[in-house]
Design a protein that fits this description.
single chain; 12 helices; 0% strand; transmembrane helix; 73% helix; mainly alpha; DnaJ_domain; membrane; DjlA_DnaK_co-chaperone; DnaJ domain protein
Length: 272
């Protein structure tokens, strides 16, 4: 008798759980339809990260960065000492493991071969990492920083960056906005926090560029732009999405430059 009651209770519990799962699925579907209707994008309901998939994304991100860096370095026909030094500094800044360093150099050499076709590499990146806005933007920022390593953006380098940006889903206007942001952020490279008291017209103009805003934006809009950028460069978020841990230092450096730029705007506008 007791066994029969236990079986009945078990069936009731399982039925209740199944109904709950169905209801949850319907609710998620409704939310997805609303989200897609409003934004035009499909929602991502992934709450867990498969460790194998995370490792795969990290390997693909590493390969893509250095293959495209090699392509950029050879874009003008020769790899300058500035570009070689930048890649070495880039690797050292990250504190790469010996294995990652060896792989990075190998991928850089592949990309620097004039006959190498970068399209399959970008397609692979989009297949495995393209659903992350952060990864796409961080990749484009890393490459732009590399292109500017010698202090100028060669037309051939810009053409490759534009090609990559288009394949990553960015319009020409969006690419130019990101390019301006990187140029603006570079103005504050190596500066520490709000201790820098420079506030020339050029400094302030570059500070706005660094945040992707203009002087016409409201204080609230500038705060939102700053918080969004800082969120994009958050180490935990980037690691979780597929940026190798030993490449987070570069994103941290970009975040510092954004912070200095925002501090300058705050002082200039009296933002609390």
């Amino acid at each position: 008798m007791f066994r029969f009651i236990a079986i009945i209770l078990g069936i009731i519990v399982l039925s209740t759980m199944s109904i709950g799962i169905i209801i949850l699925g319907i609710f998620a579907a409704i939310i997805g339809i609303i989200y897609t209707t409003i934004t035009g994008r499909r929602p991502n309901f992934s709450f867990t990260t498969n460790p194998f998939k995370a490792k795969q994304r990290q390997a693909i991100f590493l390969e893509t960065v250095f293959v495209l860096m090699g392509k950029l370095a050879k874009a003008d026909g020769r790899i300058s000492q500035h570009e070689i030094d930048h890649v070495e500094a880039f690797i050292q800044k990250m504190g790469m493991s010996a294995e990652h360093r060896q792989e990075a150099i190998r991928q850089f050499k592949r990309g620097s071969d004039p006959a190498f076709d970068i399209n399959p590499t970008i397609q692979q990146f989009m297949q495995h990492c393209g659903n992350s806005v952060n990864l796409r933007q961080v990749l484009l920022v890393y490459l732009t920083v590399m292109a500017l390593a010698d202090g100028q953006l060669d037309p051939a380098e810009k053409a490759i960056l534009q090609q990559v940006a288009n394949q990553l889903g960015y319009s020409t206007a969006e690419f130019n906005r990101i390019l301006d942001m990187v140029l603006g952020q570079a103005h504050f490279s190596g500066q520490q926090g709000s201790s820098q008291q420079r506030s020339s017209a050029t400094d302030i103009a570059d500070a706005y560029k660094a945040l992707g805003v203009t002087a016409d934006n409201s204080n609230q809009e500038i705060k939102r732009a700053y918080r969004k950028l800082m969120s994009q460069y958050h180490p935990d978020k980037l690691t979780g999405q597929g940026v190798p841990e030993d490449m987070i230092a570069v994103a941290t450096e970009q975040a510092k430059e954004i912070q200095v730029a925002y501090d300058l705007i705050k002082r200039q506008r009296g933002i609390k």
